[in-house]
Structure formats: C-alpha cells, structure tokens
Write a structure and sequence with these properties.
The complex is a heterodimer. By secondary structure, chain A is an alpha/beta fold. Chain A is built from ten helices and ten strands. In chain A, strands 6-7-8-3-9-10 form a six-stranded mixed sheet, sandwiched between helices. In chain A, strands 2-1-4-5 form a four-stranded antiparallel sheet, with helices on one face. In chain A, helix 3 crosses helix 4, helix 3 runs parallel beside helix 5 and helix 4 crosses helix 5. The chains are: A alpha/beta, B mainly alpha.
Chain lengths: ~250, ~325
Amino acid sequence: MLEVETVTKRFGGLVAVDAASLEVRKGQIVGLIGPNGAGKTTLFAVIAGFLKPTSGRVVLEGEDITGEAPHIRARLGIARTFQIVQPFAGLNVRENIAVGAYLRHRSAADAHAKADAVAHRVGLGEDLAKPASSLTVAGRKRLELARALATEPKLLLLDEVLAGLNPSEVRDIVPVIQAIREDGVTILMIEHVMQAVMNLCEQVYVLSQGRMISEGAPEKVCTDPQVVEAYLGKGAAERLARMETGHA
Amino acid sequence: MTRGYLSIIVVLAILAALPFLVASNVVLNFVVFVLIITLTAQGWNLLGGVGGQNSFGHAAFFGTGAYVSAMLQVHYGVNAWVALAAAIAGGAVVGWIIGFLSFRAGLKGSYFALVTLAFAEVLRILANAMEFTGGAAGLLLKLDTGFWNLQFSSRAAFVWLALFFVALALFISQWIANSRFGAHLVAVRENEEAAKALGVDVLAVKLRAITISGAITATAGCLYLQYFLYIDANIAYGVWISIEALLAAMVGGRGLVLGPIIGAFSLHGLGEVTKLAAGRVPGIDLAVYGAVLILVVGFAPGGILGLINKLRFRGRPRPEPEKAATPAPKTEEAA
C-alpha cells in the first residue's frame, strides 16, 4: 500500500533521514520506533507531504506521490496526526473534527453527523461542545486521532498518539486503534510506548540516526543487538547478554 | 444556525425602519456614511476576522471600486449600475491578484499586513499621478438623480440602497459561516499545518476569501462615490478607510457576522457624541477611537459582541469545567 524508497532528507549539513526504506501492506499496523532524534517525525513529514525529500520516492498504491502537496495526499487517503498536538484551539470539539469530515462530505449536516460518529468512536462523545482548548492531554490526543479519522483515510499515520498518557489512558486507547484497523484502515505508527507497540504492531521498523537499522516482528526486533545498542549505547547488547547468561 | 439569521433580520429591520422614524438629514447622513463603513468592514471581516489574514490595505479594494465605477461613468458614460457591477468585479480581481502574489509567497501575519498596505499606497500614488484617474483633482460625478443613475435626492432612499448591500453581505457572511468554505477558512486561521493535514487547500481557501473580500469592499467604495459624487486618491485609496475597516470589525467582534455593523455604529456613534460634547476640539473623535481600540485590544479581544457573550455566561455554570491548568503537552524533540 505504501512504499518509501530510499528516502533521504537533508537539512543543510545535517542528514535527518539517510536512505531509509519501508513498506506497509494493506491492513497492517506497522510500527516505526527509534531513539530520540532518529528522524522518525521527519520521515513521517516526508510521507505526509509536509517536507520534500532530498532524494527517494514515496509510493502510495503503486502511484508515485513524492511531488504531491499535503492536501492532495489527504484526498488520496493519507491522514496524519501531529506529535505536538495541533488543535484548532478556538473551535469546539465537533467543529474541529468536522474540518476533517468536510474532506469527503460537502454539506454541513453530513460533516457534523460524521464528526459526531467519529467522536463517539474515539471516546470524545461527551465532549462535542467543549472548546478544544479545554481538553486534557489525553483528550487532545484523541482529538488528533478523531480529526484524522474523519477524513476517512486508507492509511493513517500516527505520530506518538500515546506519548504523555498515563498507563490507564494507554490501555483505553489501544483498543480504539485496534478497532480502526479492523475497519480496514492501514496504520503506520511512531511510538515509544513499547507495551503498545508489542500489542498492536505486526511489523516494526527501527530508525536510528536517520538509518533503518532493523525490521521485523516486534519480539525479534527487540532482541536485535543493533537495536539495543542504538537505545542503550555501544556494547550494551554484549553486556546484557553476559548478564543474562550470568543469571542463568 | 437559524438564530444567526434571526438576529440579522432584527438588526436589518431596525435600520430599515429608521428613515420612517427620523426625518433629520443629519441623522440619515450619518447612517448612510456608517453603512458604507460597515460594508467596507464586512469585506475586511471575511478575510481578517474569519480567515485571520490581517489586511492593512483594504483601501486597495475600496478605491478600486470607487475608481472603476467613476472612470467608466465619467470617461465612457457607462450606466451607473453597470459601472457598479464592473467595480465589484474589479475589486474581486484586485483581491485575487494581491492574494496570489502575497499568499503564494507564503506571507503571513505582519508581513501580509505590510504588503497589503504597500499595495494600497502604490495604488494611491498612481491614482494621484495619472491623468486618466483625474490626478490630484480627483473625479467628479455629474449630479443627475434618478434610480437608473444610482443617485437619489432623498437620503432615505440611499439608506435603503446601502442597507440592501449590507444585508446582502450579512447573508453571504452567515451562509459562509455555516458552510464547508467557512470551516476551512476558520481552520486556516487557527492552524494552517493542521488544516493542510486534513486536506484543506490553504492557498485556494485564502484566495477565495480575499477575492470575495475585495468584491464586498469594492461595493462600499462604489456606494461612497454614488453618495458623495466625488473621489480623489486620498479619499478612495487613503489609509483612513483601511483603518476604518479593521477598526469597525475588531471593535464589533472580529470573525462574527454582526461584528462590523455593531462596531461601525458604536464607534461612529461614540465619535459623534464626543464631537457634540467636546465642541470644537479638532480630532477629538479620533483620539476617542484610539482609546477605544486600546481598550478593546487590551480587555475585550472578542470585541463588543465577544464581551456581551462573556457577560451573558458569567454567573451561570460554565458548559464545562475550565481546565486551563492542563499541563502543556509534553513537547518532545522532533524524532
């Protein structure tokens, strides 16, 4: 469904993403993990059209969309959430979601009905009339999700929708994401909360210093020495292995 | 939604009845002038209030409306109504061009405000210099009253004419407020990046807004010409009208359908009262405007209507507990 082919993104002398490739198949939930500053959000921005890659291609359903503007990609079925939530602060929850719903619904009545339905689905049904600025962090994350869903995407890009939530809030939202996938939406998610990554993703890509260093099933990736080193530093994998055998 | 239309109709009915209740030419003169300001501000409000693109140069549209109509009538003897239609189209075209040049370049906030001011000033200097536009002497419309000439000997008739266009702009604004275009425009004002992610073509939305805005304000310029029968560059393209436009909208309630009309009447009403009270102190009404603007910006950013709404909800349990103390979302580094 989505192929990212050797995408490189440079900011001046800094190579934020270095020849990274990934593939998301229809119906999958794919995770993108990596230490802070690895370039995950930059790669997301390239996929969603907010940044032009220095080189490489982004292909959606066999079509090269590397040159398309973000709003065109939204029409083609890519929706994204923002890591740093971007609510329309002056609007209430329903109006916020309706902006997304207007993408596929012309009339106000249809868009508002769609917004209400989506709000109920993500657990914002009680807050429709509240100003977006009055929501808690968890509420704002749900709002991000709801707005993206209201565009009726084929591919949903979730940028750390679980970050900043407490464990019970994470438990509440994981089933919501599962339900979205069951409705036929393909999901690519950046996530630090490993509990959620293990539960949700069938395929995980690991980005470190702009390079894709590992990919595979979550269990496999977590034990990959290169991944452990990316997170914990050089030699960490070896020390860990020694500790394991020492205990055994 | 219906409430919005209801309050529009109430306001319009009061103003339409005015000529029956007051015969004083001074009062009717005041009402016509303020209605023209209102219409100018309604144009500004669509772009600046609803869309958040603060223009400081709506004189460009006001002046274009006035000059297009005046030149067509004076130089080519075109019928006044046809000239009005051409003036509206002219305002829309100028709006689109200014929008295309500045929005495509990604100008926002104070940069956009300065560029619009510059466009208006360039037009003012050109109109002042060229012979075709009457130069510094301006253009004088021949007095020839009659419906087909868009000139009326009775002030009451002109009140209704101006009111007709104000009403049209009110209904258009209300319609936009409930439409997809309106939702997109507000989304662009609130957060452009988020709007893009949701499939909003930001450039197209802004261009549409500035085009309609230009057309509305050009209509006001044309009405000014038909009423006073004279324009020159400093009137039509002067900074004064740009300021009137944004002042009325901001004082009344920016982004709100009834904001400009409430703002224009409050400000100019206050100005007239001060002039009466202070006697012959030149410029006293302008000093009052300045003070009002400072008060509005400082204490009632929502304008008069925003303040009324706030007071109406005071004391009542708020629709939801205020959670202003919500910790800011953890801003992690851009991974």
